[in-house]
Design a protein that fits this description.
The chain has 338 residues and is of the alpha/beta class. It has 14 helices and eight strands. An eight-stranded parallel sheet has the order 1-2-3-4-5-6-7-8. Helix 1 (3-10) crosses helix 13, helix 5 (78-94) packs parallel to helix 6 and helix 13 (297-308) crosses helix 14. The longest helix is centred in the N-terminal third of the chain and has 17 residues, at 78-94.
Length: 338
């Protein structure tokens, strides 16, 4: 390990954009698949190729998303969901993450009979178990998938509020998000669900500008009231939008490796994070899907530090803490749990 990576690992880091489905450690997925005799391959190395994006597969969002369907075979059951979440938190702690928000779409984990709320509680169970071992700030951001439509999004916003951090003693839901195929599913369609989430005192973010034009980022900010934007790559093309993001201190959750892997940024092109920093837009260094992108918070931060320096990356992580949705001080005290 390089000296830079050693320094990065020791740095207290803030992770604001990491998905559960794409971050389950390979060993955990392999163990559960073999337990249920669901492993589609005979060796773990073969399975690795199906879970991690290979160099020859880089450049398309479809190939990237295809890596996430195998974990869904095992994450349809409460204890399995809890177990994989606990493992994800363990890995983040080992990488020196001190503030961790995980993202999760409950609906795609309900095919075996769990309700959306049970699906949410399964993740929170794993986070709470892991928190006993790690002195971390933890919170869950619930995702509504665009392809499921605005009505399902409203249902999920209500379910998310039922598990909100400020209504419980334990770790809870802290935010609301939309993700999934952008084109043809503009943010404005989900305005009602975001109004519900805000009324329920959840932080609001939105995947926007990863595979769609700047107009989708404008909508996320103006129509949904998002205070953070996931990926936001196309925003770098719009000078007026950059000024707006900088003026209103709207954070772009930047996932450098993932953006190259999905084709959101062309190979060899300068990543938009540099344009955001030059325009004064606040950013967060994020890993998106640690397993699919073969990365973690140390690698993502070190990659950026090689371009802008260690001190600049340390400053980004320090500032990102201000924008996290986790507010432990708002949680109920022991004995007051509802």
């Amino acid at each position: 390990m390089s000296d830079l990576e050693d320094r990065i690992r020791a740095l207290p880091k803030v992770e604001l954009h990491q998905h559960v489905d794409g971050s389950i450690p390979l060993d955990v997925t392999w163990e559960l698949m073999r337990h249920y005799r669901l492993n589609p391959t005979e060796s773990k190395d073969e399975m690795r190729r199906r879970l991690e994006l290979q160099p020859e597969e880089e450049g398309t969002l479809l190939a990237y998303l295809d890596k996430m369907h195998y974990p869904l075979w095992i994450t349809q059951f409460y204890e399995n969901i809890s177990q994989v979440t606990e493992a994800i938190v363990d890995d983040a702690a080992a990488a020196g993450v001190k503030t961790l928000e995980l993202r999760y779409s409950p609906v795609i984990h309900t095919f075996a009979g769990l309700t959306p709320r049970q699906s949410i509680r399964a993740v929170l169970s794993g986070m709470n178990r892991a928190r006993r071992r790690h002195p971390m700030k933890l919170g869950l951001v619930v995702i509504a998938m665009r392809q499921h439509g605005p009505h399902i999004a409203k249902i999920l916003a209500r379910q998310a509020i039922a598990e909100a951090q400020h209504l419980h003693v334990r770790t809870g839901v802290v935010g609301f998000d939309i993700a999934g195929p952008e084109r043809g599913n503009p943010p404005r369609l989900f305005k009602s669900s975001y109004e519900i989430a805000r009324l329920g005192r959840l932080g609001v973010t939105a995947h926007a500008g990863e595979d769609a034009p700047p107009e989708y980022v404008w909508q996320a900010v103006d129509e949904l009231g998002a205070t953070r934007v996931g990926h936001g790559c196309s925003a770098a093309q719009d000078p007026e939008l950059l000024r707006r993001l900088a003026r209103d201190r709207i954070v772009v959750e930047c996932c450098v490796s993932s953006n190259y892997h999905t084709g959101a940024v062309r190979p060899g092109a300068r990543h938009p994070i540099h344009a955001f920093l030059e325009a004064g837009v606040p950013v967060a260094v994020c890993s998106d899907n640690t397993t699919v992108s073969r990365t973690d918070q140390v690698r993502e931060s070190a990659r950026l530090a090689e371009a802008i320096g260690f001190e600049a990356v340390a400053q980004i992580h320090g500032a990102a803490e201000e924008f996290c949705f986790i507010r432990p001080e708002t949680a109920l005290k022991e004995g007051d749990d509802v």
